[in-house]
Amino acid sequence: MSLKICARSFLTQASFRRSIITSAILLPALVSLSVQAAEPITLRYAVWDKNQLAAEQEIAKNFEKQNPDIKIDIELTPAAQYFVKLDAAAAGGVAPDIFWINMPYFIQYAKNGLLEPLNSDIDKSKLDMGNIVASSVKAYQYNGKQLAIPRDVDSIAVWYNKKLFDEAKVSYPTNNWSWDQLKAKTAELKAGLKGDAFPLVMDLSGDGQDSYLNLLYQNGNNVVPIDDKPTDIDNDKSIWVYHQLQEMMKSGQLPTAQQMSEVKTENIFQSNRAAMAYAGSWLAAPFAGNPLINDHIGVVLMPKIERQSGVAHSLGFAMSSKGTHKAEAWRYIQFMSSEASQEILAKAVIPANKTAAKAWAANIKNVDVTPYIETLEFTKAYPTAGTNTPKWQNIWIASLKRIFMGTDAKKEMDKSVKKISRVMEK
């Protein structure tokens, strides 16, 4: 054998050995890079209601099946601590990629630039904003930008107890009734009911979402400044509403403010001690599912005063303006806003998607709760103004508590409205 052949053979073998060694060295690195490339992105998604967690988890699971490159980490924080935690995270630049926002806090977050504008994403997507409750869509707009997509919606209606109406020989309310007819029925019920049952109950102790705010809207008020006009919570139409409630408490058609501070509206109604009750859609399932009352109750639209109206409040899907996975975050927001996902949400709340909202009503058995859906055609958004809605609300609520305890409504509002206006304008 020649030396050239031996040398060539040796070099070939050496080259082969080097190739094997190099491959052995590089292969783990290549595998590592491949694993890293396949590692899914994790989106943090902040929520606060554990009662809706199951629906959220189902939606997330469905999304992950269709989008294996993205994982959803749902961060549940109790409502009382939610905005404290979110405020701190946003201030530190570590807000979740997606989070729930509500109407009272929306302006504060919008003005501070914490919410990512979604207009271009919406324009490029198949999301039909026209099939979302209009008042909620508008509520999450700021300076012409859509800064959140409405997730769900709450509305208000009037429940009635047929047994108590029959006992008092009073006809049932209907969807086309007026405030004067409601007052006439409460007077008849007061005269005809036995025992300690109330003709009507509504919660006047809080922010008024399920009580006086609806009456103010129905009487033609806006509550917050609109079109450069100041708040109207102290005008004649508002004072009329406060007087109506005062008079009904004095006459026994409504429980007194003291009585209502000791019990909850839902407890009185579910114990057959109220002929009628103003109640939010969040109480529809408990009422309809209660065997003590569900065979003799009904629900209708709120009565009209000057106009048909009412309060609608929505939570919104918001995207952090500081997030690093905005494209992926939009994919999930769009998925959560789809009709299929919204129908899953309908197991817990009224979806903001108007088609899926019908599934919520269908899910509730024993009682026809469609008035909650029908009222969304003419509701107005929950009133917010300035960067600190909770602050001016608390001032107003304190004044209203005094009014409902018997203080002169005009004098009380004259004292507090200037302070409330200043906070609204900040």
Notable traits:
426 residues; alpha/beta; three-stranded antiparallel β-sheet; 19 helices; 12% strand
Written description of the protein model:
With 426 residues, the chain is of the alpha/beta class. It is 49% helix and 12% strand. It is built from 19 helices and 14 strands. The protein has a five-stranded mixed sheet. Strands 9-8-10 form a three-stranded antiparallel sheet. Strands 4-5 form a two-stranded antiparallel sheet. Helix 15 runs parallel beside helix 16 and helix 18 (389-404) packs antiparallel against helix 19 (409-424). The longest helix is centred in the N-terminal third of the chain and has 36 residues, at 3-38.
Structural class assignment: alpha/beta
Output the radius of gyration: 29 Å
Distance between the termini: 97 Å
Mean pLDDT value:
91
Strand numbers in spatial order across the main sheet: 2-1-3-12-6
List the SSEs and their pairings.
Layout (H helix, E strand, L loop, with lengths): L2 H36 L2 E7 L5 H14 L3 E7 L2 H13 L6 E5 H9 L7 H6 L9 H6 L1 E2 L2 E2 L2 E2 L1 E2 L2 E6 H6 L11 H14 L19 H7 L17 H15 L6 H6 L2 H6 L5 E5 L3 H5 L8 E4 L10 E2 L2 E5 L6 H11 L2 H7 L4 E2 L2 H10 L7 H4 L5 E2 L7 H16 L4 H16 L2
Parallel strand pairs: 1-2, 1-3, 11-14
Antiparallel strand pairs: 3-12, 4-5, 6-12, 7-13, 8-9, 8-10
Quickly describe the structure:
The chain has about 425 residues and is an alpha/beta fold. It is built from 19 helices and 14 strands.
